[in-house]
Write a structure and sequence with these properties.
- With about 170 residues, the protein is mainly α.
- It has one domain: Four Helix Bundle (Hemerythrin (Met), subunit A) (Up-down Bundle), CATH 1.20.120.
- Strands 1-2 form a two-stranded antiparallel sheet.
- Helix 1 runs antiparallel to helix 2, helix 2 packs parallel to helix 4 and helix 2 runs antiparallel to helix 5.
- It is a multi-pass membrane protein.
């Protein structure tokens, strides 16, 4: 169980690193005339993602580690982190945890964005299922997924509307 606590803490620290990058990129975006959209869902997103980490720790304390499931899900967690940071790297200053679009910039169509419109959300969904299941926390995986579905629907609509109005295609 201790190594799982370390894993969840590392994922939490990764989230802090994302917020540091996001704040830096937000400052740049606003300096370039960036416009923020969809602020209403952001607090819920923060609470949901924080709840994922807390739920993993609480539930895993009462669940066994099943090696076949745990190691497979650990690989999915690592792959989702790789995909997330690939997205962050490819978007560069345009990446943010908030919906901030700088008018006149071109839509990014390289890296994972060649194949998917929102590849970062593939990483979010995969991690939201896999991280709890590393230590058999299936209730956390289920609750996060069920709450994340409507959140992602709202988020993607907000992003699409902002991108449609502001970016050069």
């Amino acid at each position: 169980m201790r190594w799982y606590v370390v894993l969840v803490v590392l994922v939490g620290l990764e989230r802090v690193a994302e917020l540091v990058v996001s704040l830096r990129n937000a400052r740049w975006s606003f300096a370039q005339g960036g416009v923020e959209s969809g602020r209403g869902h952001y607090p819920f997103m923060v609470v949901l993602h924080t709840g994922l980490l807390a739920g993993c720790l609480v539930e895993a304390a009462h669940r066994p580690f099943i090696p076949a499931l745990g190691w497979t899900m650990f690989a999915v967690v690592l792959l989702s982190q790789g995909l997330r940071w690939w997205c962050i790297t490819v978007l560069g200053r345009q990446w943010n945890t908030r919906v901030i679009v700088v008018p006149g910039l071109h839509l990014v169509a390289r890296g994972p964005y060649r194949w998917l419109r929102h590849p970062n959300y593939v990483a979010v969904v995969a991690e939201g299922i896999a991280l709890p299941l590393v230590h058999t926390a299936w209730i956390t995986a289920l609750v996060f997924t069920l709450l994340n579905i409507p959140l992602l629907a709202v988020r993607i609509r907000a992003e699409e509307a902002a991108l449609t109005s502001a970016l050069v295609k």
